[in-house]
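Ops channel
N.P.: pipeline sanity check, posting one input/output pair.
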């Protein structure tokens, strides 16, 4: 083994760490990030401040988890961080559960009809008032359920239980979760607070960072897919020139 391979091996071990360290570090990142998001919007009401800070940090953690795979394919030296995508995914979903609980208790007060955009009319019946709110929440719920399934399937035990093929299929379809989260968040960042008959609040500062984050994840995924395609094509290429005698 060369000295550089030895150094690389040491680096890989240092970054991949044991699962307990990874859980602890990811939990600390989740708490610190949420705290910073909270600080950034001190003027908002408590309910909006907390549920948005936790929702934002959940999105960031799922984005990290989504980015690690393609990043390590593009830059093989970063392979050491691959094990971290599990913990980032798990704590991203954990934060999403808290985000949802705050909405249920603090916003719609357990009235599930309100969650889907209905409000109680003075005449005593529910009327549809906020179509977009209802649809965005339905998408959020689909994302949350899907995220919980993926998080529960993110252990060596579930990997053994499900078998390699089913487990891999489940984990590879994580981009569906990512797309649901992107649509859900985009609605609340760009559309929900716009209104033609009410003063709209100041735009959320997260609008541009969110767009950049989504573009970075897409660019990494496209880049990694292109690299995989090119490698496979180059490997397959010699066969195309084989003559019947060589075959
Ligand atoms: C994986 C699941 C979820 C993620 C990652 C997520 C993430 C987010 C993010 C990033 C925001 C925007 C925060 C901001 O404007 O700065 C948001 C807003 C919101 N989400 Fe979710 N969400 C999820 C699930 C849900 C579910 C299940 C519900 C409903 C039960 C929900 C209801 C809301 C509401 C009502 C808002 C607007 C918050 C406000 O204006 O204070 N979300 N979510």
């Amino acid at each position: 083994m060369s000295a550089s391979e030895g150094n690389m091996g040491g680096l890989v071990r240092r970054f991949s760490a044991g699962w307990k360290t990874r859980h602890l570090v990811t939990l600390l990142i989740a708490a610190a990030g949420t705290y910073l998001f909270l600080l950034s919007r001190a003027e908002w009401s408590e309910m909006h401040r907390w549920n948005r800070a936790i929702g934002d940090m959940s999105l960031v953690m799922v984005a990290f988890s989504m980015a690690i795979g393609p990043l390590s394919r593009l830059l093989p030296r970063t392979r050491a961080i691959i094990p971290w995508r599990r913990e980032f995914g798990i704590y991203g979903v954990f934060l999403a559960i808290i985000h949802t609980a705050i909405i249920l208790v603090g916003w719609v007060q357990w009235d599930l009809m309100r969650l889907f955009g209905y409000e109680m009319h003075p005449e005593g019946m529910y009327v549809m008032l906020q179509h977009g709110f209802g649809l965005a929440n339905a998408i959020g719920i689909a994302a949350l359920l899907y995220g919980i399934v993926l998080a529960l399937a993110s252990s060596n035990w579930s990997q053994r239980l499900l078998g390699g093929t089913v487990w891999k299929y489940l984990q590879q379809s994580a981009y569906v979760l990512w797309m649901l989260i992107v649509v859900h968040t985009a609605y609340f960042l760009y559309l929900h607070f716009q209104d033609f008959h009410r003063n709209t609040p100041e735009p959320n500062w997260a609008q541009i960072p969110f767009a950049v984050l989504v573009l970075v994840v897409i660019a990494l995924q496209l880049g990694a897919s292109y690299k995989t395609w090119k490698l496979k094509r180059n490997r397959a290429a010699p066969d195309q020139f084989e003559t019947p005698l060589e075959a």
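N.P.: looks fine end to end. The beta strands are 118-120, 126-128.
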